[in-house]
Amino acid sequence: MSETLDPVATTDLDHRQLAEQLLAQAKEHGVDLVGPNGLLNQLTKNVLETALDAEMTEHLGYDKHDPAGRGSGNSRNGVRSKTVLTEIGPVDIDVPRDVNSSFDPQIVKKRQRRLTGIDEIVLSLTAKGLTTGEIAAHFADIYGATVSKDTISRITDKVVAEMAEWCNRPLEPVYPVVFIDAINVKIRDGQVTNRPVYVAIGVTCGGERDILGLWAGDGGEGAKFWLAVLTEIKNRGTGDVCIVVCDGLKGLPDAITTVWDRAIVQTCVIHLLRNTFRYASRKYWDQIAKEIRPVYTAPTEAAAKERFVEFTATWGAQYPAIIRLWENAWSEFVPFLDYDVEIRRVICSTNAIESLNARYRRAIRARGHFPTEQAAMKCLYLATRSLDPTGRGKARWAMRWKPALNAFAITFEGRIVGDA
């Protein structure tokens, strides 16, 4: 019995053989793989010119040298040369022209000097915190191409409209948990000052991280500011949030209960732990982390209090500020102990938040400071965008999500599964 050939496998084999043949010919004639006269440059030139010629044929309605074009009222009229910047460097191409000048190419548009892949490279480098000057130097070093700072700025400015669309996109109808965090950004407004940018991160009913938005503040935010932010989130479709985790931001708790009257406001255990380590020498961090863990993993408030007394006996004399920190936050911390262990695990899961903050800090640190608030927001949005091509910054929150979902569904009966 004869074997049936797989057309896809056959095509892949043909492409591989063709590639090997081209490489062999290039090597035989001393042609480099990359560079101005390299194999990839020539292939890109041929592909672009072939596509442009096909567009001209479709535009005119007949092939080159086809007698059917005689007397048609329009015909080919030579070519014009231009250089386009691609991911492999500058490529010189010949763009066909027509007599009536009505040809409007799409693969390389009129006045287009770079392929779309270059824009994505610029946006990716900006998301990593590189300045326009550093990006220009990168293209000169890697691609041997000159890209002006103005061009780079125009490329990044294109995402402003995309950012506005992202900030107004519809959201999930219900989030089991929403975290509100802040990151400080240096912005020059007459003088360089630290300005907070707030990020809201929702955990969806599917167990994914969803970055809801970014909001710039001035450090003096109150209830009015937070009411506007949370109302915006609600107007984008989020009718209910079970738990909002925040860190003592003025006016925020009242705004939360005004917008979502059934939401529970929980002091952020993550921030409490983070602030704990700020008061301690780094060499003791591992030991402190081990000994504070029984406090926030205790089954009841009474058990947590016992563990905290033990912690105080060990560390109180050396780090009294840590003890004072926990004592001051105790009344806002203990509601956490009423939750099921699976819900606690979601609230205390730092990976999704810390990976986002690390990306933000890397981008901000590389820039130092920003000339305007919009420049800072644009950089943070691009960092968010780089986490996920859809721009939503999706990531799995916890590996064991189903047990957590069941715990949420029981604790907040009728609000999770029914509304999701």
TrEMBL record:
Keywords: DNA recombination, DNA-binding, Transposable element, Transposition
Function description: Required for the transposition of the insertion element.
Biological processes, Gene Ontology terms: DNA transposition
Domain of life: Bacteria
Keyword DNA-binding: yes
Protein's name in the database: Mutator family transposase
Taxonomic path: Bacteria, Bacillati, Actinomycetota, Actinomycetes, Mycobacteriales
Similarity-based family: Belongs to the transposase mutator family.
One Pfam assignment: Transposase_mut
Region (Disordered): 61-80
Alphabetical list of NCBIfam families matching this protein: transpos_IS256 (NF033543)
A GO molecular function held by the record: transposase activity
